[in-house]
Amino acid sequence: MLSLAARSGAFSPYLQATSYVVAGQLKPIVPGVVVNTEKVLKDVKKPFLCRESLSGQSPKTGPAVSASINGAASVRFAHSDIRVPDFSDYRRPEVQNANKSSQDSSDSRKGFSYLLTGATVVVSAYAAKTVVSQFISTMSASADVLALSQIEIKLSDIPEGKNVTFKWRGKPLFVRHRTPKEIEVEAAVNMAELRDPQHDLDRVKKPKWMIVLGVCTHLGCVPIANAGDYGGYYCPCHGSHYDASGRIRKGPAPANLEVPFYEFPDEDTVIVG
After folding, report:
1. pLDDT at 65 > cutoff 70
2. Structure pTM?
3. Catalytic: 238?
4. Is the model more confident about 69 or about 179?
């Protein structure tokens, strides 16, 4: 015979249980009595108590039935007297009346639903756009890197015939204020004599200002300004000579000094980068 034990726990004050013990198919409720007679003492008109006959009399609240092959069957019912919560405050006024069709107010309710859905989509899209833009901005250059990407130089501080060195993006930047004689000499150079042919006017925006990177094109050394056989730049590491236009004239360097991008916002200022 199987036995069943249940514990209600915290819900015990709110639950009540009723148990009916009925006969099983193989074992009666009480021990059988042997009657020494040929007739069976049984009233066929009296309903026999079993699970089938009791099921019609039991309440329709989901009974829990347990049975075994050789043991008694039991039917347990659990019901509660807890009041069902009232959700009227959360329901729309149009659908609280059970006798009124909800189709009459479907248009207004759908309009509100569409408006709420549209507002939610707009807010969600804006939030997603903000998150994506913030994430992408984290991969961009920082403020200090952006500050070094450009350099503004005041040209009035550079006297004629002098070369001033600035630091730009971690590299030396040569800004040379050329004299009219230097401009005339560099413009008259024969292009056939140059290892890296390039006219002087192609390397400057204003002839009196020569702006190049101070990095030797041979092995990356820093040349010396106003030196060398051509009065421009000279790299003492391996003997490369550049003229006042930054063009290689002598030595192992294969190319001219690099000219960065720059522009003149006014006559007295140049912005490199």
Report:
1. no
2. 0.48
3. yes
4. 179
